[in-house]
Amino acid sequence: MSHLEEVIARVDAAVEESVITHMNELLIELSEDAALSREDRYEQQQRLRNAIAHHGRQHKEDMEARREQLTKGGTIL
Known about the structure:
- This protein is an all-alpha fold.
- The protein has one domain.
- It contains 3 helices and no strands.
- The mean pLDDT is 88.
């Protein structure tokens, strides 16, 4: 397995795990990975950035839905 294939597998695993801390750590690690071409590094970092952004939007939507459920009738139940 090539280094790029290993990195892609790690990014896949981090995205599937959906833990922001792990994705951020991998982003930093990729920034310092001289074994990857600039394009390959950028592509994998973009995948992580997109997953982080999606996770943030999903979390915000979930919190808004929860607040709406809790505040039916104008007061928190």
